[in-house]
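The passage that follows is intended for readers who have already worked through the single-chain material. We present the inputs for a multi-component assembly, then the predicted structure in tokenized form, and finally a short commentary. You are encouraged to pause after the input and sketch how you expect the pieces to fit together before reading on.
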Amino acid sequence: MDCYTANWNPLGESAFYRKYELYSMDWDLKEELRDYLVAAAPYGGPIALLRNPWQKEKAASIRPVLEIYSASGMPLASLLWKSGPVVSLGWSAEEELLCVQEDGVVLVYGLHGDFRRHFSMGNEVLQNRVLDARIFHTEFGSGVAILTGAHRFTLSANVGDLKLRRMPEVPGLQSAPSCWTILCQDRVAQILLAVGPDLYLLDHAACSAVTPPGLAPGVSSFLQMAVSFTYRHLALFTDTGCIWMGTASLKEKLCEFNCNIRAPPKQMVWCSRPRSKERAVVVAWERRLMVVGDAPESIQFVLDEDSYLVPELDGVRIFSRSTHEFLHEVPVASEEIFKIASMAPGALLLEAQKEYEKESQKADEYLREIQELGQLTQAVQQCIEAAGHEHRPDMQKSLLRAASFGKCFLDRFPPDSFVRMCQDLRVLNAIRDYHIGIPLTYSQYKQLTIQVLLDRLVLRRLYPLAIQICEYLRLPEVQGVSRILAHWACYKVQQKDVSDEDVARAINQKLGDTPGVSYSDIAARAYGCGRTELAIKLLEYEPRSGEQVPLLLKMKRSKLALSKAIESGDTDLVFTVLLHLKNELNRGDFFMTLRNQPMALSLYRQRIEGRVAALQTAADAFYKAKNEFAAKATEDQMRLLRLQRRLEEELGRQFLDLSLHDTVTTLILDGHNKRAEQLARDFRIPDKRLWWLKLTALADLEDWEELEKFSKSKKSPIGYLPFVEICMKQHNKYEAKKYASRVGPEQKVKALLLVGDVAQAADVAIERRNEAELSLVLSHCTGATDGATADKIQRARAQAQKK
Amino acid sequence: MSFPHRPDAPELPDFSMLKRLARDQLIYLLEQLPGRKDLFIEADLMSPLDRIANVSILKQHEVDKLYKVENRPALSSSEQLCFLVRPRIKNVRYIASLVNADKLAGRTRKYKVIFSPQKFYACEMVLEEEGIFGDVSCDEWAFSLLPLDVDLLSMELPEFFRDYFLEGDQRWINTVAQALHLLSTLYGPFPNCYGIGRCAKMSYELWRKLEEEEDGETKGRRPEIGHIFLLDRDVDFVTALCSQVVYEGLVDDTFRIKCGSVDFGPEITSSDKSLKVLLNAEDKVFSEIRNEHFSNVFGFLSQKARNLQAQYDRRRGMDIKQMKNFVSQELKGLKQEHRLLSLHIGACESIMKKKTKQDFQELIKTEHALLEGFRVRESTSYIEEHIDRQVSPIESLRLMCLLSITENGLIPKDYRSLKTQYLQSYGPEHLLTFSNLRRAGLLTEQAPGDTLTAVESRVSKLVTDKAAGKITDAFSSLAKRSNFRAISKKLNLIPRVDGEYDLKVPRDMAYVFSGAYVPLSCRVIEQVLERRSWQGLDEVLRLLNCSELAFADVAKEDKASSESLRLILVVFLGGCTFSEISALRFLGREKGYRFIFLTTAVTNSARLLEAMSEVKA
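Having made your guess, compare it with the prediction:
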């Protein structure tokens, strides 16, 4: 155990930092890491590498390969890059890979190299090209910030809900800033940039110059800056070799350290634990790694290879071609227990347990010592907590064993913290496994929550592990197993090379009747992939018709939907389908469909019968109230409804809900003159109405021949003026003239004027010696053409007055 | 050509105070719920609210988003919801469903319901029934008077008409009394009060009670408004049913003026989008033509256009200094005037297109024939043809109602046949419409034998059974009857026409209906104001079936100044039309009065009949 603290490095008085290996990398990289564009997702996420051929001119013709690896270096995807030059890569919070191209287009890929979507960062970016880009995470999701060739910034705080913001100009900015970063304060993303000795803060509205308090003088340029994982702290690396650390609001300085190295560092990231007072920054150069904090000395490591730093919530991951390591501040519990010569209760308990295993009485002494101080509870808690922070299972075990040993001597120690830690560690060890490659620490795991972890496993298509974890943690089925199975099924559906039957059977075997799994959701997904047949097969397994039918309707399998709805015996459902069909099919097809489904037909009829029955009740009530007129009107309506239904069936056209007038009009418009007349007789439509109706309908049809025939069928009860009017409304002067001659003398002038025959109208008016008509004609006389007519009228008038 | 007021015409009181009052109260209510909140507004309240407090004012008082109250789940994510609604059961149920849905989802938010103009016990009962009485806080926003114009106050309660005159629901009478009370506290007591109609009487008595309860406040004040006249809509349906031919009325009939503003479509604005235009005295062009008969409007506008052009042209001969003056002082006004002018010319053209057709001429002719009471048979067959041709369901109903009122109800044979025709044309649901119309007294059937009372003008009297005439109208007097013909004679509503009626220089109020008819409501008001009592109008009251329902309360000694005595507040219960407003404005100019109008809503024939119609389009 003496060597356990061998990899602990003190920084200042109170803190230790340790670095341990997570994995030796499985990948077989052909090039040095520095030749790649690298992006590694936080929370032990995947690593994306893209050989960057655009930097060197030589290999422009060769298409680079985009490779995605798990944190342990297991290949997840590899694809030929076919689009334009990429400036920057980054992972979103949903573990989607965002590739920012030089022209401002951002391509989004899934974990397995599947292309998801793309979006553009706007015209301004397109014109000025992208100089630099950063992907950052805030509480709203993942954002993209872009520095364009014109030295302007464009920013989107959430790529899921794309809203581009063009940041204001920095006055007098001629060249690219030496370094810049994104801050997030008060829920607003800001950009901090360094130009020479000056710092500027950009927000949506303005650009303001800022100065870090207490910065040593003599700075002429900032070489690197870093923001902590939580956006609370900021570190600046100056060209004097000085590292300034302070709050991100630039209001307070924490400390300053001079490392006397003037070369710009390759990377600089914060390394601090949540709720720890220690603040430290890890700075990496080509072959040197330095941990700097509020202490006169720093910790130095030598790097054998090209390495890449990934900031995490509670530390820094460092990976290179061969290894993947984790550097973090030793947590308090571990420090207390393992610090050399520690007398903390946890340390004593661990000793006691060891002695106990050796069957030595010293165990008792240690225990007594703890008990005398009354610190046994604390000791147990310390051991449990420390176990959580251990990476090696053997250490976890020995600490947990100590905790369980200590528990025996306590009366009332709630067991759940111990049990939960055992469970959590089991899960953590499982996912840290080489094949899975998600090196989460305990604090990261707690921050991420089990739900998100499960999502990530699903995203990696590690369905069995996810299900095992759900079962092990006894998560409710709907949230856990069922959800994962549904995801699995949706994935399965997308496998195009497997036949429909096999997929459907496989899915049914796995899913069975697991509660909370909706076959219709899976079927909807299958339909989305264009596998309609598979979707129908899957729907067979869906027990709820209410879910089946709408999807079938969406897939345009309306007949199948109808028979399903009928099988279900749910009247509402049948009506849903019927109404849908009625809108979708033309009337003929609709009734043909109905004819093959007697049940639906009868339901459809029932709807009418229902209305008829209601009307019958109303009619009875009217009779009781001695309102014979209303009763009769209601009975007529009943008769009309029945008739309309018959018409609908025979003619395949909508008639229901039309008034009597409209029904007859529709019949005439469709050319069923016989039926129309029959209807008019049945309902005793007055002649006048019938004539008006027929006249309008025939004119609408522009069936002039039939109209003429009709006009001659007998003497018009409405006169012939309406004929003229309606013909003129349809702009048929020729037909109108025919009828104008038949208009009675009373209205003849009007008719002639309508036709536009002013001269003849004048003649008639003069003949009839009607003053009103004369002035009417006169008002129609226009200009030169009717000059003669006007004169004629004037003369006639004068004559009439003489008499 | 506009009629300037007589130089001694009294000044109108400043009603913008009412707006400020309502706004302050609303803000106070909103502040009662501190923090950000989403506001749900009932659709009917949106336009009035807009006139009181616009969105930026609401935003200032931490209203986050605005939603319309409609029947679907709310998408609001705010922690505080505020509802601004009319006190209707339907609205309360909607709110209850929202609250209960939140409860089911385990969500707790704050809810506040503001009822305007007042809350009803029934609403609270529903809250209790739904089990959410404790979750919701209720308040009243006593916003009952919206000044639409310098002389027009509207309560914006279009439902008043149906609620009271059809359903017999008296809930709004209290609101009316409160509104009157508010006016009297702000503008001093009304020394002289007149009224006619059941609702007018009830409102008046209720208001008096309110005054007595809170006496002392108004006692000492000098009255600003000398007279108040309350009038029920059902005293005079005829005027409301006539086609309007005064410009403002025509605009209302054609485009529907809503809450003092109108949406002019693209065909009028001669651009590709429609425009919302506020129509009131501030619109210089409109204020000159609003009261004009339509036949004058076009000439007036073209004259105006020429004047405007001349004013523009004036700048030709100007030197620099004058030009500077012109640009800085006049040009803006001219441009504004120019814009308004082009709008109104557009509107006129659109109206002309619709209304100068032969159809419209014949319609007006029929209407006048009905009012004057001759050629009834022809009019009836005109109406029948109207129905047969399916010209317009509302227009047909309007003509039928007009026929019924002027003729003391339709003869049974006509009633049946017109009804049958109507049902054939527009569907049997209108059986209910007809029943509504009968209940409201708009469209009735003569009881057999009833014809003899209106014998004079009856051309078709031979049709009815003479023997039935012996039955006196002992029980049929219970039914409401209009006796329009006799009243018309008594009050000389149909002016004797010698030659053409000159619409350019109107002689009397009949000009608002092309000189064919003096609005009954306005004539009654004129007569009563002249006599300062109902004396000598007993016969008219009897014919109006209002003998017990007319009242006059005249101050014995006149404390009021002579100026205030010429300010008259006319209260229309159930709505008034723009034609009536125009007619009274004319009367005011002639006699040196100023009229102030208070109405439950501005109405017209279409609105009136749609309120009665059971088929809501």
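Commentary: The radius of gyration of chain A is 44 Å. Chain A touches chain B through 18 residues (CB under 8 Å). How closely did your sketch match?
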